[in-house]
Amino acid sequence: MDDGHWQLLRRLLRAFGSALDQPTFLDDCLDTLVEALDADRGLVVRFWPDGGHYPVNARAPGRALKPAERLEISRTILEEARAAEAAILWDQAPSTAESVRSLGILRALAAPLRARGNPEPLGVLYLDFRRLRSLPEEPERELLSAVAELLGPVLAQHDDMLHMRQALKDEASQSPSIAPPSLDELLALPGLALVRREVAAFLNTDETLLIEGESGTGKTLLAHAVADASGKRPVVRATLGTSDDMNTITSELFGHERGAFSGAAAKRVGLVEHADGGTLILDEVLNLSLRTQQLLLDFSQFGTYRPLGYEKPEPKRARVRIIAATNGDLPKAVEEGRFRQDLYFRLAAAAVVMPPLRDRRGDIPILAERFLRRLGGDTWRIAPPLRELLGGPTVTLPGNVRQLEAALRRAFHRASLRGDQVLGLDDLRPVELGVPVRTEAPVPPSAPVSKPSTSSRGKRRARPAAEELVRLLQEHQGNVTHLAETLGIGRNTLYRWLKEADIDLDAGRDDD
């Protein structure tokens, strides 16, 4: 092989070295081969156990092949390569079948992809040539044989990883988990009536949707539910993180060409291209740099984008519906110059705000029951005292739906030890629901300390801890007078205890 071929092999070896961490490595390899050999098309064709074949990766110079183009494969060439020990150089002859002639293939290179001595190939590496000026010869056939020997084992490794991931996924599916709700189920909550109306108005449009709200309110759940209900697939989520490096975020969204920046050893397909024809969910859009905001504005307006290092005169295009989500204050960021006003108005073509749970307390018991049913089934129920606590004023849940879900999971596992399929007050810790608990001052050794009792009326006792006060208040159904008598203290003293423990004083006033 000449120096050019050795350089090509070195480039491919670098790509193979990072193959396990690079989901687009097959596309990268095909792009390298198509470019270096001046081929018209490059494909990796897999053979399935039923005898069929399917191109899993298919590239033309600078682009992916369209679905119809992917099927323009000569079965004759595939079968010859499948039976061969090394790469074959196929040349059109007078006896060539008319079906092959109709594809316009003048010459082709094809090599079987094998691994670990398995005589049956996993697939075929296939390149065809349709122009007289770029027809391959024997040196290119030898080169493709060497490439196939490298690519086969890497492909087998990826198969093994996929099988392992599927096995782990199957195992995880056997344990209790909370499946994502549908859009109808998610928005059926009374506290989301306004959100329900807004989403219905824009569900089947291409308008960009902006979802705002505190952390844990379910913004990402809503984004996925809207995307699924609208039928705009594939659905691709971009978690933008906190990086302020333009190359990192821009490459994530729009991709990059080889050599676009230091460390860009291989081409990368961006999430925008992966989401073409579907929905792109942008989490924490406030983290975008101003430069990347400009690129996103151009894409949202015109559907065009340029990967980093892309030098062709015409930009790439993709039709994508954007759903953006943030827990930040975008209007304030616009005022401070951290976020472009024009991009804000573009993203907020349709906008909804997911309210925190503290502003829709009536939803909390409903959500708790929903989580419990998914964890344990329809036979599980929540005891009335716990239901009352969940809908009461002492539950703050600063982590919103995410915190409630985590608390219910822990409570479910505790209650499962009893086997009665009832979730009660003793299964949840007040602190898990955001109920404030204050540390009590130590009682002097000389002071008489009464044992906790709820059955001896008139006997004065030491002040219980805050969570104990909440439990006792529930047992007495919020009747402050009766509870004070049980504790052997006056009502004013009990009100002072509740106030100092940050327990809402309204808890018992209806009975007084």
Rounded to an integer in angstroms, the radius of gyration calculated over CA atoms is 32 Å
The CATH class of the largest domain is identified as Alpha Beta
Coarse structural class:
alpha/beta
Report, as a whole number of angstroms, the end-to-end distance: 96 Å
Walk across the major sheet and give the strand order.
3-2-1-6-5-4
| Low-pLDDT residue spans | 17-22, 168-177, 439-460, 507-512
**Beta-strand proportion:** 5-15%
Q: Give the overall shape.
A: elongated
The total number of structural domains is 4
Report the average pLDDT across residues. Answer: 82
CATH topology type of the largest domain: Beta-Lactamase
Number of strand elements: 17
Counted by DSSP, the helix tally is 20
Fraction of residues in H or I helices: 40-55%
Give the arrangement of secondary structure elements.
Blueprint: H1 3-17, H2 25-37, E1 41-47, E2 53-60, E3 63-64, H3 67-70, H4 75-83, E4 88-91, H5 98-102, E5 107-113, E6 123-129, H6 138-172, H7 183-186, H8 193-202, E7 209-213, H9 219-230, E8 235-239, H10 246-254, E9 255-256, E10 268-269, H11 271-274, E11 279-283, H12 290-302, E12 304-305, E13 316-317, E14 321-326, H13 330-335, H14 341-347, E15 350-354, H15 363-376, E16 381-382, H16 384-390, H17 400-416, E17 422-423, H18 466-475, H19 480-487, H20 491-500
Parallel strand pairs: 7-14, 7-15, 8-11, 11-14, 16-17
Antiparallel strand pairs: 1-2, 1-6, 2-3, 4-5, 5-6, 9-10, 12-13
